[in-house]
Amino acid sequence: MHVFITGASSGIGRALAQRYASQGATLGLVARREESLNQLASGLPGQHHVYALDVRDRPALHAAAQDFIAAANGRVDVVVANAGISQGTLTDQPEDFAAFQAIFDTNVLAMVATFEPFVAPMRAVGQGALVGIASVAGIRGLPGAAGYCASKAAAISYCESLRNELAGDGIRVVSLLPGYIRTPMTDGNPFPMPFLMSPHRFARKAVNAIAAGRRQAVIPWQMAIAARLLRIVPVPLFDLFARRAPRKPRGAPTDGLP
Ligand SMILES: NC(=O)c1ccc[n+]([C@@H]2O[C@H](COP(=O)([O-])OP(=O)(O)OC[C@H]3O[C@@H](n4cnc5c(N)ncnc54)[C@H](OP(=O)(O)O)[C@@H]3O)[C@@H](O)[C@H]2O)c1
Q1: In angstroms, what is the span from residue 10 Cα to ligand 1's centroid?
Q2: Domain annotation for the chain: domains and CATH numbers
């Protein structure tokens, strides 16, 4: 089994890498922090491929993908577009535009760039799964997190479009919507996080959901119920609660901020 994972140096991506490696997979591990990737790869069973790059660098990402496809003799089973950043953003603060841009480039456009090179080889062998890591935050817009929520809403819709574009090619497109997972991204959240889950537990459930052929999964299940409710709450009622919701801190556009 061959699995390509972006954002593998930390949190959810790292836990997914550990889970897939424990099942005997050969991995393509992508992130900017080469040392973290090497340290991860050397602690895993099997031989893996480390690609230290910025997912916003599309040519570099494609070169890594081609190298991994060649190493897998054209049969890559799972691609997980997981790399992501989060930060509070306010539209009336002009300096936040750069954060909006970085969030969209990383969470949305890099997901497209991650999947692009795998479509043709997966189509050729009639199998493969493209997995997008979105978020429960993409279901409704929360104040103070317009950039992040909008990027995850885009990721959800993008995966849905792609799933139906590729229907009939043997390629599955899966969107995973994590709730609160304990990673560096949420470590500094200054508010209570209901149903907080460890990345390892998340990874186990995510890998099972992908293997079971799920098209979309909210993890953990308690958040799946919350997600269902969120989807049907009428706009005026949603607004009543949303305006009181705790906000993500703004700050320098540092990757990994909550
Ligand atoms: N934690 C949660 O509660 C939660 C909830 C919903 C969704 N998610 C989503 O889950 C995904 C993983 O988040 P996490 O919680 O595991 O956060 P994390 O621990 O901060 O990990 C983020 C990963 O993305 C990589 N990354 C970020 N920007 C990158 C870039 N430009 N190029 C290459 N790699 C980049 C980071 O690696 P480098 O810094 O080494 O590049 C790191 O490996 C994200 O898409 C996030 O939005 C998380």
Answers
A1: 7
A2: 2-242 (3.40.50.720)
